[in-house]
Amino acid sequence: MSETLDRATARLANLEAMEPLLNALRVLSLSSMHMTLNRMRSVENYAARFTSIAQQLVNLSTTAKTTSSKEETAVDIENSKPKKALLVILGSVRGICGAFNRNLASKSKEVIREIYAPDVTLEVWAFGARLQTKLQVEQVAYTAFEPLISGSLPDEAKANQMMRTWLAEFESGELASVDVLSYRSLKGTSSYQPEVTRLLPSEKIQVEESPEALPTLWPYPIIEGDPESILEKIERHLIAIKFYELLLETVAAENTYRFQTLEQAKDTTADLIEELTLEIMTEKRHATTKQIHELVVGAGLIGPR
Q: How far apart are CA 182 and CA 180, in angstroms?
């Protein structure tokens, strides 16, 4: 065989060996994405039930007492005036996900410039080695952390422990705010883009104007003790749930990017296999024609060209 045919045959063999691997990784990414989305729906339903119970508690509390509590909290925060803020960036755990981490790193510079005042001491926590590499390129200072994702799902225990630490520092006045830069889904689509979500300070659960319009709970919650104390615990839990949802959405976005990258690689590989197959067939026809010509010339049936 000619050198061109040898080279084309070797490339075709490599691509044919690679194609099943690409398909397997593609299916795995799609499966992980759907598993994460199902998990997100379960967590959303779980959070909705807590929110409904919290709303019942809000309406059990007296308006005056609730207002007083909110005013005291506002005064405490204003008096302490902490200057330390935390920006958490959730990167990808594995590779083959295109511009996932590059987009996050680029967005982080914009966020730091537009959101935080010059007198704020900002700490940036970067989760994931691949993200950290991109932040270095963008010259963004950060503290490196191991990913909060184990396998295809977030490590709930680690996330909760981290959230409890942030809550304690926020309530003691050490932290002014905690923001999370991560991929969020665009409403009504399967696309994701980097967005900032504020975890702390969190939004307070508002009192419904028409309590009778609240969703009916079954079984109806039996509330014992101080409603405001229970409400405070539920609000803390809802913040932790929100952080966990952001981690899940990061996993879903990462696998979506990976699936799209592998889908493009699969199509490109299929096109290359088709091109190389045609090239090999053409080279073989040329080689066969040349051999026949040499035999005919050797037999003296025709003269050499």
A: 6
pLDDT in tens, 73-130: 433 444 456 679 999 999 987 888 889 999 999 999 999 999 998 888 999 999 999 9
Q: Tens of pLDDT along 265-299?
A: 888 988 898 888 888 888 888 778 877 877 777 77
Report phi then psi at 153, rounded to 5. -135, 155
